[in-house]
Write a structure and sequence with these properties.
13 helices; single chain; 485 residues; alpha+beta
Length: 485
């Protein structure tokens, strides 16, 4: 089980501040830059609020009101009346959180005598985690974020969520927009070894991805090259559409007379992304631990090199006899190799708490002499867990002739005193003494973590007799609950 998350990531191998238009600041005007004389590309200029007459000044409370009042005057229009408090609290709740206020909150706001009640309400809602969740959705729409790859296969993209959570944190933390932009385009280069610097670059990989064109068709074939070219085009247009608010897609094939970006500009930008590949990259959210991990991996590599030298020396001294033994061991390991089953086995219902009891049991049909009980974990790639998914941290095995285990019960194994290491899909064998029984029950007292919840899962339960026959094969299985129920 991985102890660190992953992120669907595009590695920035080539980046130059001067190559990307969004990082260009002031340059002397010239004939080439004349194409960029668009109001939307010019720096924001501070304007003096227009002067107002006495009537307008009576309701205008801030500079924005001054501009609105001036425009209303030009059109011979008057402003609407001020919203009452019931309307105001609903508007601000829907605007900032996307949800209505509770009736008790409406009543409290209406009855609040504080003249700054509205301002304090706004500050309260801006401080809510729900604010970032609400407004991050707008940004994720802009960057065409998806939890699946799109195209015809539309496969699940299980490691996209760190970028989504980064955007939510950025909104809740009021991150400066300039930093927000730089982190997403080149966070790994400009903010190396930081959580936000890594997770933000998920922006480059948010768009649709042609699984067939990349994973099933080699780059040596025309279709593979086309798929990769289209993928880089998506990176360019997503960057420009998002941060400059202009379309550049047409310049991939031809110039437009009045477009700010021509073919030369387009392919300069595409060169920035040309060396990128999408991949699932492991990282640690804590920069200190990430730095320590790099140091430890370096030590592991050094020790592995030393170990390789020792192994070579042993092979030399062992000669033919050792080579023969190694060959026999390889053959035995191949025969003993645990094969993953296509079935996911038994899954309990999901629990919001970890210290809850769940059980699953098999009915052997009649009392049978038991020689060995074997538990095998399941393999499920949900949340990148893989082998050992749902294997309980604490559990016990009981045998009984009573289906409810109220009487005539024998304890086969008790692993409830402390947390057990996850065995993956390696068989866990238990050999009871002189046991004859009909029902075998596995009871979990501490569940495995799934995501933000907990579950019990087992791939297989074998019950063997003295001849090695699996007495549990095709027998009835019952449980406290199951995810299929």
């Amino acid at each position: 089980m991985n102890w660190h998350p992953k992120i669907n990531f595009a590695v920035v191998l080539l980046f130059s501040l001067g190559q990307v238009a969004i990082f260009c600041e002031e340059q002397p005007p010239g004939p080439e830059l004349g194409r960029f004389d668009f109001w939307s590309l010019k720096p924001i200029v501070k304007h003096t609020p227009p002067a107002l007459g006495q009537a307008e000044r009576s309701w205008a409370r801030n500079p924005i009101d001054h501009f609105i009042a001036a425009k209303l005057g030009e059109k011979n229009l008057t402003h609407s009346g001020e919203a009452n408090r019931q309307t105001l609290i609903r508007r601000v709740y829907f605007d900032l959180l996307g949800l209505p206020p509770k009736p008790t909150e409406v009543e409290a706001f209406v009855q609040n005598p504080d003249p700054l009640a509205y301002e304090k309400l706004v500050e309260k809602l801006l401080a809510s985690p729900r604010y970032g969740e609400r407004w991050a959705r707008h940004w994720l729409d802009v960057v065409h974020y998806g939890d699946t790859h799109g195209y015809d296969k539309d496969k699940l993209r299980p490691n996209a969520w760190p970028y989504r959570d980064y955007v939510i944190r950025a909104f809740n933390g009021d991150k400066p927009y300039g930093q927000f932009m730089r982190e997403q385009v080149a966070g790994d280069a400009l903010y190396p070894n930081t959580r936000d610097g890594i997770e933000a670059t998920g922006f480059i990989a948010t768009g649709p991805w042609d699984f067939i064109g990349h994973a099933e068709v080699p780059e040596t074939k025309l279709d593979g090259r086309i798929a990769r070219n289209l993928d880089r085009d998506d990176m360019v247009k997503n960057t420009m559409n998002t941060f400059i608010s202009i379309t550049v897609q047409c310049a991939r094939c031809h110039d437009h007379k009045f477009d700010a970006v021509n073919m030369t500009d387009y392919y300069r930008m595409q060169a920035v992304f040309a060396a990128l590949d999408r991949a699932d990259r492991e990282y640690h959210p804590d920069p200190k631990i990430a730095k320590q991990l790099v140091s430890l991996k370096s030590k592991v590599d050094r020790h592995q090199t030393e170990l390789k030298g020792i192994e070579n020396e042993i092979k030399t001294k062992g000669g033919n006899d050792l080579a023969t033994l190694d060959k026999q061991l390889r053959e035995l390991r191949k025969r003993a190799e645990v094969k993953k089953q296509p079935e996911y086995g038994y899954h309990s219902q999901i629990s919001s708490t970890q210290d809850v009891t769940k059980w699953v049991q098999v009915d052997l049909g009649q009392v049978q002499a038991i020689k060995q009980i074997t538990m095998i974990g399941t393999s499920d790639n949900f949340n990148n867990i893989g082998d050992g998914f749902g294997f309980p941290l604490r559990y016990k095995i009981e045998a009984s002739n009573d289906p409810k285990l109220l009487s005539d019960t024998t304890a086969v194994a008790d692993k409830t005193k402390g947390d057990e290491p996850n065995p993956g899909i390696a068989p866990q064998d238990f050999k009871p003494d002189n046991l004859a029984t009909r029902y075998i029950r596995i009871t979990a007292t501490k569940l495995a973590k799934r995501s933000n919840d907990f579950i019990l899962a087992l791939g297989e339960l074998r019950v063997l007799d003295a001849k090695g026959n699996n007495l549990a094969k095709e027998k009835t299985v019952t449980a406290l609950d199951s995810i299929e129920a």
